[in-house]
Design brief:
Elements lengths: L1 H17 L15 E2 L5 H11 L3 E6 L2 E7 H9 L10 H4 L4 E5 L4 H11 L3 E6 L2 E7 H7 L4 H8 L16 E4 L6 E2 L3 E3 L2 E3 L1 H7 L1
Parallel strand pairs: 1-2, 4-5
Antiparallel strand pairs: 2-3, 4-7, 5-6, 7-8, 9-10
Amino acid sequence: MMAKSILAKKAYILLDSMKGKLPVSEIMVTDIPQMEPFESVEDAAASMVEHGTGCVIISEEGNPIGMVTERDIVRKVVSARKNPARVKLSEIMSSPIVWVPRNTDILDAAKHMSKLKIRKLVIMHDGRLLGVVSAQDILGIAPHLIQVTRELASLSDDAEDMLSASIEQASGYCESCKGYSDMLEYHDGELMCPDCKERQE
């Protein structure tokens, strides 16, 4: 019965993805380790191996504030010949966290990744971290969707600065009031919470 239910779910996912109506919650990875900013890159690498994932989420007081991926470790630590045991995650993490709601369609998620030049998106609901979806996850389930392929194929290896893009939803600390918010917006060169943005306008 278990095997049949798994096959039925896979069939459902395939049929929905062929129509381009598949929420990211159906394909996201949920077993994502969370670590503190002061922990080392060496510990993060070990955690990625243990959980079989390509990233860790950096949290502070329970709030997700950044992400470190395998690519970050290779580019910012290994290639720079730094000792991973001595490099803190806060030194190499990408921040703020860029996220989408759990019901976001995979095509919309692909467009968001392409727009911000990123390869992973965090999935959140009611302020809670649910999981992470990657470009590879989307292409793996819907390679036949030419729109998805085109969006994700446009990702550049060298484009890592998300702050200069039009961020619609991000989690981190407001650069004006320094308070945490999961609805940061890019305004006049700074990441601001909705209240600070409203006061600036």
